[in-house]
């Protein structure tokens, strides 16, 4: 039994040794594959004509340089140097290889500078705020184009209501915001760029008496109950509703101020009240809402788009605005 165990131990250890040697041979063979370090060593040795000097220039050991040269010769199956003292000289094959090796090494060295030049050396972080789903499509297209052209740039996103976007843009919390532009356009410090232009219409439930109408007059809404956004979130929208109604001879009966667009639309669909909105809300509204034109506002449009502070555009923000204008040229 002991002889058998001893024999098994010998066989097992022998197998381990063979496996280890086989593993080492695989790794060593992989090391001999041509790579940029190998070519760089070859170029430097050809320039220095000495292994020791080349090792010092490359900040690696002398044996490492010798091994790289040997591996390159094995890979090419050719002798590249005449090993005569005191200097190494290139063989005819070595001179031919040197021309191509220098070109490859130089191209690799120039790769990063050329890449940065193509991207205008633009890097940093762009801070974007956006309001709601209506801006998703235009914002998506812009950031996608930006990521392709300026891959070194980082973009941070934050969703907030109109009031917060306006306030934080003025504070410098955002570089640019995507939002309905009502209110933004009135500030001389802010530049705006319209992307979506939607008619100003009346939103009512399909069960409302105006649902079958082709259009309505604003004065006909004097007895209606209105739903609007919370004033602090959309002051300009609330003010516009009050001013328009007063021009028509009445004050609006506002029964609810809501904080998000989905609650807003659900209340209209449930016939809890009516609202004056941009017709582009139909893209996200439930099927229970009808949008009816208003006679007095046949020419008025609600504009959504981008806004940023004048003369405060960072290079990355300026590049983003340029891409935005390419994607959505003004008519």
From TrEMBL:
GO terms for molecular function: DNA binding; DNA-binding transcription factor activity. Residues 34-91 form the HTH lysR-type domain. InterPro entries: LysR_HTH_N, LysR_subst-bd, WH-like_DNA-bd_sf, WH_DNA-bd_sf. Pfam families: HTH_1, LysR_substrate. Keywords: DNA-binding, Transcription, Transcription regulation. One of its GO terms (cellular component) is protein-DNA complex. Belongs to the LysR transcriptional regulatory family. This is HTH-type transcriptional regulator GltC. It comes from bioreactor metagenome.
